[in-house]
Every structure is written in structure tokens, then in C-alpha cells.
Design goal:
Elements lengths: L1 H5 L1 H22 L6 H23 L5 H23 L28 H23 L1
């Protein structure tokens, strides 16, 4: 576990980089138009690539509280979005009134893996890695 803690800031940056690459792949290459909740998740994920990348390069742990709060908020939106897709009763509460409906699942791997679940996994992994890094610094 100590070895993972030594590289947790760098690994969090790599996870954010893969997540942004995945979202760009789905929207630009696969042609999936993001819904409003997807855009909100992107608002939280895209800056993490820059923040965590610069922090990793400079070995600056002072950004952890900011990156962690962005990751937790983005993860909350992802969780809501995933529940919105999986629980039909939440469809009436959705903020997606125009454009692409938020309960549309462009991908459905193994019957439960959707894009919001992939985003939730990325936000969760980033949060865990940042918590580990925070504990290492304390």
C-alpha cells in the first residue's frame, strides 16, 4: 500500500486523463451527443486533468482539497445520472428537458455498465487516490 501512496497523485492524474479521453472518444468518434448531466460531469472532470497534471509534475500536494472536492461533486452527479438511467421513477425528476434525454444509455455492457457508471468509477478512483495521498502527507 505504501508504494501506491507514493504515486497516488500521479495515478489520479492518469485516471482523469483516461476519463477525459474516453468521454471525447464517445462524443467525437462514436458520435454520442452528451446530455445535460454528462456536460456537468465533464465540467468536473476536464479541469482535473490540468490540475492533477501540473500538481503531479510539480509534486504540489496543496491542490488535493480542491481536486478532491471536484471529484466528489462530479461523482455525486455521476451517481445521480446512473440511478436516473437504472431507476425508471427518477425520469420525471431529470433536468434533461430538452435535447438528449438523460436516461438514454448509449452503451449497455453486461446489462449494467453505462457511461455514467464509467464516470462514477473514475471519480471514485480519483477520490480514493487523493485520500491516500492526503493521508501520506499528514
Amino acid at each position: 500500500m505504501t508504494g501506491l501512496r507514493n504515486y497516488s497523485l500521479y495515478l489520479a492524474w492518469l485516471v482523469s486523463l483516461v476519463a477525459v479521453g474516453g468521454s471525447l472518444y464517445f462524443s467525437e468518434y462514436a458520435g454520442y451527443i452528451p446530455c445535460q448531466l454528462c456536460w456537468i460531469q465533464r465540467i468536473f472532470m476536464y479541469p482535473l486533468v490540468l490540475i492533477l497534471g501540473i500538481a503531479s509534475y510539480r509534486e504540489d500536494r496543496s491542490v488535493i482539497p480542491y481536486a478532491l472536492s471536484m471529484s466528489l461533486l462530479g461523482g455525486s452527479v455521476s451517481l445521480y445520472h446512473y440511478l436516473h438511467q437504472m431507476v425508471p421513477g427518477l425520469a420525471s425528476l431529470a433536468p434533461c428537458r430538452e435535447g438528449v434525454p438523460c436516461n438514454t444509455a448509449y452503451i449497455d455492457w453486461l446489462g449494467f455498465i453505462t457511461i455514467p457508471l464509467l464516470a462514477l468509477a473514475a471519480f471514485t478512483l480519483i477520490s480514493v487516490l487523493l485520500f491516500l495521498e492526503r493521508k501520506r502527507v499528514e
